[in-house]
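Collaboration report, partner site 2.

Our partner group contributed sequences for two proteins of shared interest, and the home lab folded both. The records are reproduced in the order in which they were received, starting with the first partner submission.
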Amino acid sequence: MTKKIVPIQPPLALCPELPAFDPDDLANVRLAFDPATPVSSQQGWLAKPDPNFAPMTVRSGWRLDGLFVFAELTDADIFTQATAHNQRLWELGDTFEIFLRPAKQESYLELQVAPNNRRLQLRYPNAKAVAMARKAGSAADFVIRKKAFYSQIWLCPKEKKWFVLARIPFRSVCENGQSRAGSAWKFSFSRYDYTRGRAEPVISSTSPHAKADFHRQGEWGALRFDFAANEDQSRD
């Protein structure tokens, strides 16, 4: 009798309001994010994980005018060759990626952070734009030139880990000058884990992608904000 394969469901992450915290203190950041839903990386397109797969756990919360994302990445060889912002970070070494789209919006953000805190920030107007960028061999037309988000990095090579804290203002994600868009967003977090001496990076995502393509939005997770019910916000 053939065993029926049950598809893995995209993750649901609750995004709580965070308390005040010191963004420069790793222990304080960890404490602030403790109530947030942890989501873990996987390789849904493989029958079993790559032998060199290393875990990643990501939590999200909001405070004041923005979304905060905190990632813990296990990594035996933390490095990047990136030297400036908006380079093709995923080709230059270890990279953490954030994908965000309000549920009722077509355009979405792809944000990348390297271990030396170099950043790449892209906005795609729709899914077709990604196909255009791939055909052209460049996403330069979709680079956001103004600073769209902020990040802090902690490198802990003795623990074989690095950490990323990203603050993304709501106005960077939401169209039409909205400070916030609804209570539900689509999200995905992914990574490129390079090791010197190995030809290809090990890639993984918090989304259960059936193919190794991080832009498959149908497999992204749902991020649920706990905005107060009496606030004047649109609802999804």
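Second partner submission, folded after the first:
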Amino acid sequence: MLQAIGHILPIALAVAISSVPILATVVILLSPERSRTAIPFLIGWVIGIIVVVSVCTLGATLVPTPTGPRKQDDAVGVAELVAGLALLVMAVLEWRRTRKNPAAAMPKWLNTVGTLRPGAVFGLALLLNVRPKALLLAVAAGLAVVAEGLAVGQSAITILIYTAIAASTVVVPIIATLASPARMEPRLHSTQEWLIANGGAVTSLILLVVAFAVIGSGLARF
């Protein structure tokens, strides 16, 4: 199980540092409705991570596996190579987009998040887990769990650890802000400004690191 946890740590970190959910969290926490919408967003985000990575883990068990020694490792290795290459392409595209549009600006749709009702915010948090980038990371995590041949209980614990790390950058600010809004508001403003200016570059770098980690894991299985 420890080996599986080691494989999912960089993937969970990539989810945690993803700028879109963090920016959405900050917008919600700076809105007048944060007392009504922050917790639904938190719950939706955590549930979304658990559901998506669990589905991807179950899906990874369906990877076609020819009979013969080490054939399961080979099949998972091929799947990891595909997922890693897809993440690599996404990292390059994100970097090119950032270089092409260096001007710092909040995505227009994020500006409306603070006006949403609790139910809509909950749904948004779920939907953020099915973005292409989030799905690829969940697929990589699911493959890492399945590759180690864990029992159901061990797989569940690994997924919960993954979720705790991946959701931490949403959960911690929400809890801290609801507990002490006056102290957190200046930090939220500075975080928002920094992410708008640097979020794309950070995301592309993290995706690049994870892509090579997943590719390396896939190659090691042959």
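Feedback sent to the partner group on the second submission included the following. The longest helix spans residues 181-220. The two ends are 21 Å apart (CA to CA).
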